[in-house]
From TrEMBL:
Signal peptide from the UniProt entry: 1-19
Keyword Nuclease attributed: no
Organism domain of life: Bacteria
InterPro entries: DctP_fam, TRAP_DctP, TRAP_DctP_sf
One protein family per Pfam: DctP
UniProt key word Signal: yes
Keywords recorded for this protein, A-Z: Signal
Coiled coil, from the record: none
Protein known as: TRAP transporter substrate-binding protein
Amino acid sequence: MKKWVKNAAIALVIPSLLATVVGCGSGKTDGGSAQPAASGGAKERVIKAGIGLNEDHPQGQGLKKFKEIVEAKTGGKIKVQTYFAAQLGDDQKMTEALKGGLQEITIPSTSPLVGTVKEYGIFDFPFVFNDPKEADAVLDGPLGKKLLDKLPQHGLVGLGYWENGFRNLTNSKRPVATADDFKGLKIRTMQNKVHLDAFKALGANPTPMAFSEVFSALESKTVDGQENPLATIESNKFNEVQPYLSLTNHVYTPFVFLVSKKFWDQLSADEKKIMQDAAVEAGKYQREISRQQNGKSLESLKAKGMKVNEVSAADKAKIQEAIKPVIDKYAKEFGEDLVKEMYEEVKKARK
Ligand code: TK8
């Protein structure tokens, strides 16, 4: 082929090849899939908000409330596409997607976030809170903010805390009422080293696992049990594969409302205020329905045939004693001053 013809052919082909590579390679949204500013100035944006739990779960209800508020307050300029039940992946995968600017919002438990902000592990200590109002006071106070302030360096912005709730143990082997009853149980835990080490200290055999894999692991008996709040146990039908429910209430897990910093930094001050206020307002609503649902779920799970047992205060104290070395170890790792501050905040909230 004549040299000039070859060069002309290359000159024609390369730009379109480059456009293809750049187009599919980036995959990144530029702050939602922003459209040119529609009339009225503000940009139109379509953003992806994904969570791990079902639409009927209080977390799903809270996200729909958030969507409703944001779309109303922006006159539809910001459209929130909602994805439930880990359609976009589990907590850790969606959190990574936010860091990369591939997704705009997710609301994970704080436990799997310890790989990003290790200090969130203090909320995995057992029996820290006696009731949800104490948790609200600590999370919405200076300590909760101190931890939110650690997120931007990791490409994340935290707009506040919602409620996952008090965790209870289910399993397919036996009632668990004492520290000894945990011995030998294969228990699924969140991807969190405090939970892993605490269950090991009780003689259990813990396996860290993403939430969306839990039902099939229970059904196939890969694991004997798991632990989650009552609303989650019911919403994910764990009662169908877990005969025993033990009301351990061993840990209160918060959700943290996360926004991709790549997206957040593209927003105007007005857009940021709308998002922040909506996360707080929807969070208040979500906490309320979470507490109502947990009450209803206990009765419903009993009616569905789960064998429910309480755990006495004396036995909870023995459980706490058995895992004390684990808590002491992680208090050093997370910062003893921070742990001290948490217990002081709890004491203040109790008064
Ligand atoms: C849902 C999870 C879940 C958590 C777990 O995304 O993994 O057990 O309690 O609810 O965050």
